[in-house]
Amino acid sequence: MEVKINQNDRVIHITGKIDTLTCSQVDEALSTLGFSEAGVIIDLSQCNYLSSAGIRVLLKAKKQLGSNHQELIFLNTPREVMLVFETSGLQKVMQFDTDLESALKKVKSQSKRTQSIEFKLHDKRIVFKSLPTNGAGTHWHKPDLLSYSEAGFGIGTGSPDQPLNFGQPASFFVSAGFCTAFAKLDNQRETDFRIVTDSNKNGFPVEEAFSFCSRPAGFLKLADSSELDTDELNHAIKLVAKMGYLQAKKVFVVAADFDEDEPSIHLFTFIKEHFEDFGFYKTLSNHTDCNLAGIRFSLDELDYQGADESLDDFLRNNLRFDNISGLSFIKETNTFKTPVFWILGADEIAKGSQNRPVLQFEQDFQFEPQKAFLTRILFHDAAKLIVEPLHGGFSAQTFHVTSFDQEGRKLRPTVMKMAHRDLIERESERCAKYALPYIFNNSAVVLGAEYYGETGALRYNFVGIGGESSKLRWLTNYYHEQDFSFLEPIFDKIFLQILKPWYGQPVIKTYRPFEEHDPTATFFAHIYQTVKELFGISADDQYIFSEELKKEILNPYWFLKHEYHLRRQKTLRYPTGICHGDLNMQNILLDEKMNVYLIDFSETHPRTIISDFARLEAIFLVDNAPIENEDDMDAYLNFITDFYAVDVLSEPGTYTYAGSHQAKVKKNYALAKKMRQYASASAFDNQDAIPYYIALLEWVLPIVCYGIPIPQRKLSLIVSSILCQKLLTHNFS
Asked: Which of 148, 450, 488, 572 has the fewest CB atoms within 10 Å of its CB?
């Protein structure tokens, strides 16, 4: 290995291998340049190997430079060496560049040497070390949801509670990024704190806040064994500023008190002097008895290790759940016995939104804070987002999202789905488990999922084979526009080709049909109340009179309430396989070349093989029944009662419709018959229609709760009655 040093530019050129035998040469070259003057550039363009011993030397150098707030930059790193950094997880903590001029600018920007001074305050000797890290502070002046990283080192009013509860009395908070303390502004002064592992992906509601640069502007300590109170500290900071070693309009203090009996860490600011012009000052001043606003963390122990290298590492090492023994307001009478202080300063004030991705909405709607928060972290790689609503389902909303990078380049369009946390977790998991291994090219690909409280957001991609220019349409659109001859090959493609890995490989298992297909187990626990309000039907009446059929019929809601649970333990041996679980036509999309894409796998899992076919039959024959008046109802009921008169899966009922909507009913009949054919083939020799009717009842009974016209909801009652009558009299022994 050959090592060349450019003293003027502080560049080390390495040729060959950095391994156990040669890493000492690198260490010597780094020592030659020193670690306090400025940053160091290591040119790796001619380096072809990096061992673990070499990594250890480079990490040591980074820590030594970091303690003086200088940078270590790797220039033109070859791919084989970069792979070593990536394998070690170090590509995220090291700095890399491909341009010497750019790297030199970074080094020069950090070249200002830290300055240390010692001065006397009364009878105490104080040492202050200035650090070149003053920067812009961030003012969050509107109620919003902040990530813990956005709050950073900061102060304000907000709440640790989820979900958001803006408008309620806020708590005072001080933050160290990953750790935030809250104190109620009432007579109880109740305190609490939150510690998060990922500061970017966790957040809390804020009324107003101010955040500081994450690196200290200075380090202050006593040169002797004296004590220091808060008033003296304030005086010392003012003296440092007056001498020109600290230039900050606003100041935040992190204090570590190494008192052997009562070790502690304090986060605070001199609020009257620095925040009197802020809205939250008035709120806090009514509840604080001095110039200070902050929180003291009482600790079991306080370890100084890492304090000279990284304030964040030092705090993470000490502010732990198992180490924090108590919280309290800092008082004006507080005295620090064996302290060190980190002073964070802000010489400029920036608006809170300026570093966030821009959210632009195509239609007249806005996201509430938690949805905006989830969108930002889900699309963290974007500078601008254009959000357009697609459709809202019973339990979820979907959005088309076009994103742009920091330089304005358009990223690939994606779809975002928002729903309850459980649903998003389930969909993410089941897409990976059941969709991608079997139907990868025809399914949405989950690109990420994020959560806040009980809300989850999913990002996935399903652009067509033609790329971004592909135009995707729901199968629902084609169903309403086209006839059966157009639709049949599409459904054949879906069920006989794309989903053949699901339906074509059934496994015979014992299952409980009434337990698996319980209509009240998901979203429709309120079904009894709905039917009472809509039709005046009590679930406690076994029989009801049907004006449409002109006779008494079995009350399906009575059956559901009083009989269904008696059959929950009944078992059947039946073919099972992976089923979509909610295969409606809004979950099937087609591009301009009729390529098929499936979405929404939240309910996908192994169940009886005929389940998805029954789901679509309910859509064709009940949801979309052409009933506009009494005559339509009469004609359709004649047809539907004949259709459900059969009890053999392979022999669907005959077509007997004599009404005025021939074309539509013929299409729906043909599609329902097609579903029966698929179901019959998947069930092999299990041709008894009863398991299919149980699965069908799962989807027909809840239609009464849908937001569709009353005639179709009344039809669902009658069809449910027919199915329940079959189940009531069937011998399941």
From this structure: 488
